[in-house]
Amino acid sequence: MKKELSPALRIELTLEEIGGKQPTASSEVEIRGMRCRILEVKPPKIRTNAVDELASPTAPATNPRSRIDYIFYRPNSGFELVESKVVPELMASDHRPVFAILKIAPK
Questions:
Q1: Are 49 and 70 in contact (CB under 8 A)?
Q2: Is the torsion defined by CA of 94, 96, 97, 102 positive or negative?
């Protein structure tokens, strides 16, 4: 009799959440008390611009449809993005301003 496998559950975790060791595909780790097999390892996303998760549009200021305004930074420069958002300001410009908070990353 063939043993039926349960469906895979997709969970994205950081290295800190799995003990700080770099896993490889097919290695096993314990996550929250469960033995799990790693199916895929993706490199971390390296951001170069301070963009919110939705990539909110910035132009035109009234009824914006395009994202054309960004704040760029170098990931290796020692900064981490804390927060980024498009400010819903209609009067200052024909574009909406982008607001970002960057912090100095721990070494």
A1: yes
A2: negative
